[in-house]
């Protein structure tokens, strides 16, 4: 039997340590992901960069054509939302364990900055989708989660604050409180993950 194509990206010894923990579905998905990376994503990387507008006003508001095409191919191949495990999110997830996805995430790291986005597995969207899937109200899931899962919108994450060491979340000073039927957020953010998407956000919460 031919070795799994993953051994081209990691040592045979490393693969041997986890291979028996991979389901047949996970092994097949991993092989498809590697083929998709090699045959579609890597060859498209330069084109994706070339299609990105140089105008700052348009740069972060443009849907890059080749990435949009690759997303549709990824959906058809079942290489979509791989990060979201059905074991934890039965309604939305895919039948992969965290271990199985970890190996796939490492493979995606070989595809440059476009690879995770092409399969809808890029930050901060992944973490935001997990939060919405677990804690979001039905209304929030309909408004934000479903479009994120479908790759129709992107999200942003604002954590860093100027005057505190924000890598420790216990230092965060931004507050949130209810006032009647409204929620009031009071704070100052310094750096924002995926800032380009923040300009499109109208209902983001800390």
From TrEMBL:
> Single Gene Ontology BP term?
fatty acid beta-oxidation using acyl-CoA dehydrogenase
Identify the residues that the record assigns to the Acyl-CoA dehydrogenase/oxidase N-terminal domain, covering every copy. 61-152
- The answer to whether keyword DNA-binding applies is no
Q: Which GO terms describe its molecular function?
A: acyl-CoA dehydrogenase activity; flavin adenine dinucleotide binding
**Which Pfam families does the record cross-reference, listed alphabetically?**
Acyl-CoA_dh_N
GO cellular component terms, semicolon-separated: cytoplasm
Going by the UniProt record, its keywords in alphabetical order are: Oxidoreductase
Q: What is this protein called?
A: Acyl-CoA dehydrogenase/oxidase N-terminal domain-containing protein
Organism of derivation: Sphagnurus paluster
């Amino acid at each position: 039997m031919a070795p799994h194509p993953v051994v081209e990206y990691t040592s045979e010894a490393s693969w041997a340590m986890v291979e028996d923990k991979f389901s047949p579905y996970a092994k097949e998905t991993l092989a498809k992901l590697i083929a998709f990376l090699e045959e579609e994503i890597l060859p498209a990387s330069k084109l994706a960069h070339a299609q990105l507008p140089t105008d700052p006003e348009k740069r972060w508001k443009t849907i890059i054509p080749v990435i949009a095409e690759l997303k549709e191919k990824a959906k058809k191949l079942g290489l979509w939302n791989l990060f979201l495990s059905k074991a934890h999110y039965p309604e939305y997830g895919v039948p992969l364990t965290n271990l199985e996805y970890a190996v796939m995430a490492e493979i995606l790291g070989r595809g440059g900055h476009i690879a995770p986005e092409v399969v809808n597995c890029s930050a901060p969207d992944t973490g935001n989708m997990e939060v919405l899937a677990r804690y979001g109200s039905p209304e929030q899931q309909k408004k934000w989660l479903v479009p994120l899962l479908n790759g129709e919108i992107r999200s942003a994450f604002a954590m860093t604050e100027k005057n505190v060491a924000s890598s420790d979340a216990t230092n965060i000073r931004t507050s949130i409180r209810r006032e009647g039927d409204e929620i009031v957020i009071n704070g100052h953010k310094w750096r924002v993950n995926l800032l380009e998407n923040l300009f499109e956000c109208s209902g983001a919460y800390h």
